[in-house]
């Protein structure tokens, strides 16, 4: 791709475009960018490029002759290239990624004409210009910034300028979507964590999360773009259903906190248990269907200092039991094994209140579990769940827990088969 820029400020434009990625590509000969001083083509001694407008009015207009002479000089040096002369103008078609793709696809040579002052003599546009492009519906002092934007965005589509085609096909606007959020080191910055899914190295889960974020943020940030999307892909439609569902969940308006449960909290905790029991029944999960966990048991847990609550503001949003005492039933794990020789805590009896299901409370609860485990000197968290309790299994997997095998629970009279999960904690 060759680009010639006609401007009154060739040094400024050249300095910018010969920097960084595009500059390196130009040095390697992958693209060629030339900047031409329009003033060098005047026929008057003063090198005057502009004059007063006919009919009167404010400012000056660039004369057609220096522009035409500059363009002719450029064209004499071009042979056999598909050329396009473009005037950068607030009256042109608004520039988009689609325009960049078209220019890269259909031409090998672009001439970008930068106006200044009140613009250029209309007769030059009529006679010499193929197309007018605008950077947006606003007025710049000159066409240089717009020309640099066009040159940069077209050149980065030329093979070899970026490391890989994926560098630009995954970016915002390529296929009508915005890009997913990006993160780099450190993993925690000012208390904000990088999403867990990006750290685990599971490429298919990362790809799914990224696609979901693309759809989600396009809908949120650019509803106009989103309205133009045609979601033909089955997986995209599934992701959209998830996004809609998440959007209808309760918004967390108060800070979340956690602490040990007191006996005063038991009535609210029992409310949460009743709801969890009902939901499990509705999903055909034979877990918590007897009187486990009983009020008596939860009172004992609280008195033993091993029952915790998560609060949204002052309201209890979830509860859990966490202990550093080994769980005897975990010793007989089948179809797999635990990580050997790690001190661990066991998570039992946990549930999120009805109105907080699907909010970030469950994820927050697991982070609290990890914090407390560390405080107790543990390096791993172990937990079991019914084989049909898919939502718990998904929550665990999405938060870095791994399936380790099968164990039998002590829930007498009900299906005791449980899947065992473990998360090894970072120090
Ligand atoms: C002050 S402007 C002239 C505006 C012109 N009088 C009008 O109202 O249409 C000077 C030059 O800046 C450039 N320019 C201004 N706004 C632009 C935009 N949105 N996109 C591309 N170029 C622009 C054009 O090259 C233009 O000739």
Characterise the protein shown here.
The longest helix has 19 residues, at 203-221. The chain has 14 helices and 16 strands. 31% of the residues are buried. The two termini are 52 Å apart. It folds into three domains: 2-169, Alpha/beta knot (3-Layer(aba) Sandwich); 189-247, tRNA(m1g37)methyltransferase, domain 2 (Trp Operon Repressor, Chain A, Orthogonal Bundle); 256-424, Gcn5-related N-acetyltransferase (GNAT) (Aminopeptidase, 3-Layer(aba) Sandwich), CATH 3.40.630.30. With 427 residues, the chain is α/β, with parallel strands linked by helices. Strands 10-11-12-13-14-16-15 form a seven-stranded mixed β-sheet. Helices cover 35% and strands 22% of the residues.
What ligands are attached or bound here? S-adenosylmethionine
Instruction: Tell me, rounded to a whole number, the average pLDDT.
Output: 94
Q: Low-confidence spans: pLDDT under 50, at least 5 residues?
A: none
**Strand sequence of the main sheet, in spatial order?**
10-11-12-13-14-16-15
User: Got a strand count?
Assistant: 16
Secondary structure: helix percent: 25-40%
Radius of gyration: 32 Å
Please name the fourth-level CATH homologous superfamily of the largest domain.
Gcn5-related N-acetyltransferase (GNAT)
What order do the SSEs take from the amino end to the carboxyl end, as H and E?
A: EHHEEEHEHEHEHHEEHHHEHHEEEHEHEE
- Output the CATH class name of the largest domain: Alpha Beta
The chain-level structural class is alpha/beta
Please work out how many helical segments DSSP would assign: 14
Spatial gap, N to C terminus: 52 Å
Broad shape: elongated
**Do you know the CATH architecture of the largest domain?**
3-Layer(aba) Sandwich
Assembly annotation? single chain
- How many domains is the backbone divided into? 3
Beta-sheet strand percentage? 15-25%
